[in-house]
Amino acid sequence: MEIHETLPLTIKCLPNGLVCVIVKSETLFLWSF
């Protein structure tokens, strides 16, 4: 079994800290709390 977790990971949060965007590889995840 091979696990690859070496792709660049970028996390950006808005100043209000309620919305964060995680960009990993070419997949974009966006969620609000």
If you had to describe this structure to a student in words, what would you say it looks like?
Helix content is 0%, strand content 52%. It is built from no helices and 3 strands. It has strands spanning 9-13, 19-24, 27-32. The chain has a 3-stranded antiparallel sheet, with no helix packed on it. The radius of gyration is 12 Å and the shape is elongated. The protein starts with 8 loop residues before the first strand and ends with a strand. 0% of the residues are buried.
Key attributes of the depicted protein:
3-stranded antiparallel β-sheet; mainly beta; single chain
Rg estimate, integer Å: 12 Å
Strand content: over 45%
Number of helices: 0
- Order of SSEs, N→C? EEE
Rounded to the nearest angstrom, the distance between the terminal CA atoms is 34 Å
Would you identify the regions where 5 or more consecutive residues have pLDDT less than 50? none
Short account of what is shown:
By secondary structure, the chain is an all-beta fold. It is 0% helix and 52% strand.
Task: Please give the structural blueprint.
Layout: E1 9-13, E2 19-24, E3 27-32
Antiparallel strand pairs: 1-2, 2-3
